[in-house]
Amino acid sequence: xIQLTGIHRDFQVGDQTVHAxxxxxxxxxxxxxxxxxxxxxxxKSTLLNLLGLLDKPSSGSYRLNxxxxxxxxxxxxxxxxxxxxxFVFQMFHLVPRLTxxxxxxxxxxxxxxxxxxxxxxxTRALADLGLSDRSHHKPDQLSGGQRQRVAIARATVTxxxxxxxxxxxxxxxxxxxxxxxxxxxxxNQRGITLIMVTHDPEMGQRARRQLHMMDGRLDIDQxxxxxxxxxxxA
Amino acid sequence: MALHSPDIAWFSWxxxxxxxxxxxxxxxxxxxxxxxxxxxxxxGEGARIYVMDRFASLGTNLVIVFPGRxxxxxxxxxxxxxxxxxxxxxxxxxxxxxxxxxxRIAPINVGSADVSHKNRSREVVVxxxxxxxxEIRHWELAQGKFLPELDLDRASPVAVIGSxxxxxxxxxQRALGKWVRIGDRRFRVIGIMGSEGRSIGVDVEETVxxxxxxxxxxxxxxxxxxxxxxxxxxxxxxxxxxxxxxxLQERHQGVKDVTVITQDAVLETFDRxxxxxxxxxxxxxxxxxxxxxxxxxxxxxxxxxxxxxxxxLLKALGASSRQIVILILAEAFMLSLLxxxxxxxxxxxxxxxxxxxxxxxxxxxxxxxxxxxxxxAIVTGLLFSxxxxxxxxxxxxxxxxxxx
Lengths: 234, 404
Prior knowledge:
The structure holds two protein chains of two kinds. Chain A has seven helices and ten strands.
């Protein structure tokens, strides 16, 4: 459960203050599927980074599972990122010199997990995403869709509660993009909270709950009326 | 959240291999620095040991007496009266044996004379001395015997010749037992000096040695050029020195007209000078290590900015600032260690080449220099990487990931 209350995020650009986030209050329950849409510069990426503890609010409070995470130390925040949050980026951000398996292993290494346990978790994560036969390939030997699947395996290998995706299909062709979305939605159905930034309305429509941002403010917060299944919106 | 050390090593090693040009450049800088220290100090140390050996081969616990006050003694009665200093004599030499602390003495006379055998002849440095000279100077004979034990004032027609002289006068013929003419006298060859006896001041392969009384006859003199006195122990050197000064002053009607130097004093001076020289060249070489350190800092800074996205990613994946610092420092540590080891090997190869080219020079880098070079290399590598590592840790992950 995520609770944002009165979040402001100001940037100083020259002698001007830019309000990237302007009094955002938002509650997200576990297992929700949320899309954040809006024009460039509307603050949707800033919101996502803030949710991922990559950015700090200028003011306001951010409680994750009841805990005020803005007050945590650097090391504690790193732990929260490692255990509670998975990131999927538009640019994949795989480490080019590492194989798919090694990329997936990174968060477990950072968590200080024992090597034997790591291997089996990495193998399982890759198998879940149909990448078992690609585990020893370097990123440049993989297609875009495969790269994003490796990135998803990496984001989920620590079994986080929240998956943050920043334009996850932005660099993919249509078919790969569909695959990736399907995978993310499957993960959501298994209980992970999926929060996705996109400016592709077609993608955004798929989410059960849609947030629309404008000039740093939450403009629209609506539940999907046309949700085909309507299966247990949180 | 503690990183396992093998993981740190694995990750840093991967990062190093991921950027081979950068890695090789830094290794080069580091290894040049380290090898410079190793080679230069081995040269310095080699030169020091070389010189020390030469001096040590003068003999052990040696005190050298020569006539006249050394210039550094300043003005004394004899200079005021314009006297020339009194010569040393064989009786003076004999008197010096009368101390418990003196093991042996060897008076020396040196001159140049024609030495001939049959129709071959050449001018040679002729040394007049006694039986104990061999022991005092630690010389070794190639063949035959050294000068016999005689009273100092007894002449005897026997000679020990250097191996080069033998080659020139006798060629392939046997020289032992043959007669040679030195000046206007005939001497029988009883021994040959080999090349082992080379030491400062005297090249025994090129000299002929005869009893000192015989030399005095040839050169028509009653004086002695030098007296070498060997003290029984190192501790006895100072008492012996005092004994010599007192004895000769007494024998010379109360005039202090001899100079006594101890080999230790000479050795010590040379040791100090050459040791300082080794430190100096080592220090100069260490500057190149510092330069290597600065280079490492620059390249690590470039590495950090090259890899901002990767560092941002690590943060997103849950790396704390501390872990980032550790990873970057581990990389620097590996680089420095590897560079230091390569440099050490290069340095050893270099000093081996020096020894190969100049077999007389024992060019071994001293242990302290190796330890210091390796330590300085690793410490500078780490120290100069602290700043880049801090910078990496301080990177804003959002900006880093967006690649801006």
